[in-house]
Design goal:
By secondary structure, the protein is mostly helical. It has 22 helices and 2 strands. Helix content is 72%, strand content 1%. The radius of gyration is 22 Å and the shape is globular.
Length: 493
């Protein structure tokens, strides 16, 4: 406890706290811009930290990391345009709430849930990081495949009104996820001799197209045809009431813990955690609440935001205790630590305990700052809804183009985004959900490669899953997630 107090004192030094504040604000801006991911933001600021003190430099990057994960929810809620992949699940209910004139409530819940999830993950990091790191070591190919399969089973929960259409969209996502080099043999698949397809389709341009560009096309169509479609959205500044927040605490706590545990698994990320927690929030909800998911349920926003921010602390567990990055962002942070002469691993807690606890304190403060800026900025954020739609649509297209190009400085990603936008437009017209495609693109390659590694380990025998309790439990949950909704609908009929 003394080390933690000393860490807090180090964080509140003027130069350090100002850098942390700047990092969180910049992170929120980066996260809110479509295509600019948390990884990109942290990598962009990495060179800035080279001449800084170790603590100040690392906390600046942590501020950008935490802020950008939350920032993605702003555009997801207001424009149905996830700023980061982690916010794709937030858009499912967030934008529906905005259309109902409850943008302030949705943004308020997103900020509070993000703060709760982030703080919970830091508490877990402080008190049980060694034990959590040991749990992460139990995950190898069978467990990773089972986790990916469980994630894919969530398609049934995010399919909207028609599970069949959701499954069709999910299968389509799995098919296009096979484009590129075979993960085990490096043999090109469905590339049609196009070099740009050798690395497959990046899911971020596809996600931007399906959510943002399709929405812009719908808006443009309404302006041209004079149709009513989406009525003018009222920019509200009505924050969630205490009664509403009280009903969300269990959801936020559960989702924050789910996000933390998924965050410690190397290779898993905030996008997976958000969808898994969204599914669990729906599963544990009462019957009347379940029917509101996807139509504007605050629990959907709370679950996905608490989970994707819970990942931030969880991903730091294997990084600090084992020297293994939990996701792409912590891989960049690992580089930053090494540049500063800090070698993460088991010895770090004994050789540099003061530094470790200063980082813990900094992460805690970063989450509090994110909560403060998130709540105080709602009035400013909602002003975007006052911009006329004939101006909003071109802005969405421009930002989406910049975001898609910035990923790899590649025009092919822009073309991918535009094609995905046209597909997304027709999907909306015919009632097909877009989220299953994004989920399949994220988890499909992971499921395929981990299954094939598992079969190599077992010499082709599927019985290996019977000897792996964690994998077996996840597979059982995956089957139940797919089968139970269908059984329930039959019982209701």
């Amino acid at each position: 406890m003394d080390l933690l107090l000393q860490g807090l004192m180090n964080v509140f030094q003027p130069s350090v706290i100002l850098l942390l504040i700047a990092g969180v604000i910049v992170g929120i801006i980066i996260g809110a811009l479509p295509g600019l991911t948390a990884t990109m933001g942290v990598a962009l600021f990495l060179p800035v930290t080279f001449g800084m003190d170790a603590v100040a430099g690392i906390l600046l990057l942590i501020g950008v990391y935490f802020g950008s994960i939350y920032g993605g929810s702003i555009s997801a809620i207001l424009l149905n345009t996830p700023g980061t992949p982690a916010s794709a699940a937030t858009a499912l209910d967030g934008y529906q709430l905005t259309k109902q004139g409850k943008a302030g409530k949705a943004l308020g819940v997103a900020a509070i849930a993000s703060g709760v999830g982030g703080v919970l993950s830091v508490i877990m990091l402080v008190f049980i990081s060694p034990q959590l790191a040991e749990l992460a070591l139990d995950f190898s190919a069978p467990e990773m495949f089972a986790l990916a399969l469980f994630g894919l089973s969530i398609i049934s929960s995010i399919s909207g009104g028609s599970m069949l259409k959701g499954l069709i969209a999910g299968v389509f996502g799995l098919v296009i996820a096979t484009i590129g080099m075979d993960p085990m043999t490096s043999y090109p698949r469905f590339t049609f001799d196009q070099l740009s397809l050798l690395n497959g389709l990046s899911f971020i341009p596809v996600m931007i197209g399906l959510f943002a560009v399709s929405e812009a096309l719908i808006i443009m169509e309404e302006q041209l045809t004079g149709g009513q479609g989406l009525k003018k959205i009222v920019a509200s500044y009505v924050l969630p009431k205490w009664k509403e927040l009280k009903s969300l605490w269990v959801t936020m706590t559960r989702s924050g813990l789910i996000g933390t545990f998924i965050g410690i698994i190397p290779g898993a990320g905030a996008d997976i955690a958000a969808f898994v927690s969204y599914n669990e929030a729906k599963r544990f909800s009462k019957k009347e609440d379940k029917e509101l998911f996807g139509k504007g349920n605050l629990k959907g926003v709370a679950a996905s935001e608490a989970a994707n921010n819970g990942v931030t602390g969880g991903a730091m567990v294997p990084l600090l205790t084992l020297g293994i990055p939990g996701d792409a962002v912590t891989a960049v942070l690992l580089g930053a630590l090494v540049v500063q002469g800090i070698q993460p691993g088991p010895q770090l807690f004994t050789t540099s305990a003061d530094l470790v606890y200063t980082l813990f304190a900094g992460m805690f403060v970063a989450n509090i700052l994110m909560l403060i800026f998130g709540l105080s900025g709602i009035r400013l954020f909602t002003k975007i809804l006052k911009v006329p739609k004939n101006i909003i649509a071109p802005i969405i297209i421009v930002l989406s183009t910049i975001g898609a190009f910035a990923i790899a400085n590649n025009f092919f990603d822009v073309y991918t985004m535009l094609v995905a936008g046209i597909i997304g437009y027709f999907m909306k017209k015919f009632g097909f959900p877009a989220s299953p495609i994004v989920l399949a693109l994220i988890l499909g390659p992971m499921a395929e490669s981990e299954l094939r590694r598992t079969l190599i380990m077992s010499e082709g025998s599927y019985s290996i899953f019977l000897d792996r309790p964690i994998a077996l439990v996840l597979i059982v949950f995956a089957v139940l997630s797919l089968v139970l909704p269908m059984i329930w609908s039959k019982i209701k009929k």
